[in-house]
Amino acid sequence: MSLHLSAFRDALDGILPSAIATTSASGEVNVSYLSDILYLDESHLALSFQFFNKTRQNILENPYAQVLVLHPGSSEKYRISVQYLRTETHGPLFERMRAKLAGIASHHGMAEVFQLRGADIYRVIAIEKVNSAARPLPAQPSLMPALRRVQDTLSRCRSGDALISALFPTLARELGIEHGMVLALDRGSGRLYTLASHGYATSGVGSEVALGDGVIGVCAEVSAPIRINHMLHENAYTRAIRRTAGDAYDLAPEIPLPGLIDPQSQLAVPIAIGGTLKGVLFVESPRNHAFTYEIEDALSVIGLSFGALLMQFQDGDCSEFDADLPEETPPCDCPVSGSALRVRYYSGTATVFLNDDYLIKGVAGAILWKLLREFAANGRTRFSSRELRLDPQLGLPHLSDNLATRLILLKRRLEERDNGIRLTQGGRGQLLLEVLHPLDLIEAGAA
């Protein structure tokens, strides 16, 4: 019976040491350990190229080699005959291996030594199971039923907000994932902003990650999954995405990004539609080796369907066919009482502070300022997404396919702060503004 790489992908994760045997042109054999092996497909592997050593010299002279891997669950050994094809020194594959290697380096305290020079691509020629005193693996349940239940739950959501709210409780129930966040891409700024999180002391809604910054940013930059299962010590990829809150009047205030203090495993998968990145789904765990190839596959599928559903809701919320509001919308007769809420707006960065505490910035900040000014001027509380999209003062992109996610972000930030300002949906493509306190609106220059 022929063997397939997919049957023992966990053996490629480096939990147990792997080795490669190469031969020089003169027939001299060399055996060395491997830091990282990446499954590409049933016929190809990628091996990390870190050192200009004997292995490298041999493989350039003679492209044929053998790789020995051990399955962490059964201790079964597999000998893989391979042929070297090429080396990639940039791009998605290189970045995936570089991120994973950073985790391995931190695990061994050798970050300065484990420097990736390239990703070596090999063609698989043959696979042989080596006789050993292997113990049988317990039967692993298929993830397909759980994946189907996740898809079914998400498909029943009737709004973008409901979809985002359902994501992580569903992942926790069906896949046992207890910590994570989902982020959307703002193409204008080249940053991702957090829409929702799960399992942390603070939600971090509105926190940002730059493209290429940490596991999340690299995943977004190369639009490819990044999975790290060796993280005994916090490494550069983890440190890069930790944020601290800025001072209330700092030029660039930020919301702290949530996260585990000592994550042992991290996985980020892109959310893309038609090849265009829309965001990132990120999960982490305090356990070593928490995320298998199967979990990566499942989350990649979930990310695709989540993105498609969210785009569907955005198209509905921001459709050109949304009805305009009547020319005159009656003012709200909601009671406004208590102390005045001071709202400070910095027009240069569209940054909003509530009672000197940072709330939000960018397009979402500009939207909130418009709504509050309209309310203060004439008591207006009902708005349409269409008018927001067409308002030139808001600076929305011409193709504002993420207006709905910006509104969800704004709604969640207001709910989290609970200062007496709320946004709710008032029907298809309509927003309702609720203000419970008198407003003291202050507009300043650049923040």
User: Are there runs of 5+ residues with pLDDT below 50, and where?
Assistant: 105-112, 232-251, 317-328
Regarding quaternary structure, what we see is: single chain
Q: Termini distance?
A: 68 Å
Radius of gyration (CA) equals 26 Å
How would you explain this protein's 3D organization?
InterPro entries: GAF, GAF-like_dom_sf, Split_barrel_FMN-bd. This is GAF domain-containing protein. It comes from Elstera cyanobacteriorum. This protein is of the alpha+beta class. It has 3 domains: about 5-130, Electron Transport, Fmn-binding Protein, Chain A (Pnp Oxidase, Chain A), CATH 2.30.110.10; about 145-315, 2-Layer Sandwich (Beta-Lactamase), CATH 3.30.450.40; about 340-445, Winged helix-like DNA-binding domain superfamily/Winged helix DNA-binding domain (Arc Repressor Mutant, subunit A), CATH 1.10.10. Helices cover about 30% and strands about 30% of the residues. It has 10 helices and 20 strands. The protein has helices spanning about 55-60, 90-110, 145-155, 160-175, 215-220, 235-240, 295-315, 365-380, 385-390, 405-415; strands at about 20-25, 30-35, 35-40, 45-50, 65-70, 75-90, 120-130, 180-185, 190-200, 210, 225-230, 265-275, 275-285, 340-345, 350-355, 355-360, 380-385, 420-425, 430-435, 440-445. A 7-stranded antiparallel β-sheet has the order 2-1-5-6-7-4-3. A hairpin with a 2-residue loop joins strand 15 and strand 16. The longest helix is centred in the last third of the chain and has 25 residues, at about 295-315. It is elongated. The termini are far apart. Residues about 105-110, about 230-250 and about 315-330 have low confidence and may be disordered.
